[in-house]
Amino acid sequence: MAWNKPESDGGLPLTHYKIELRDAIELLDEVFVGVQTKRFTFTSREGVNPRTQYTVAVQAFNKLNDGTKGERVVMSAYCEYFASN
What's the rounded Cα separation, in Å, for the pair 80 and 85? Predict the structure, then answer.
């Protein structure tokens, strides 16, 4: 998942982003990343299954306010695992 910096920071510098991963029923994982981060990948370690639909939400924060949460429905990819010799 990749995102752009919000159009407005609410008058104060952004401090971090929160990224949520949800399936049709529940929140599976949430992570907090610094403001330099503009891309994050959830993997099978967080419970992602291949070719499955998920909702991913990104929310920016500053010292005073929580930004508006942006959500997108995504289909997870299938990537073969190749062990290194």
Answer: 16
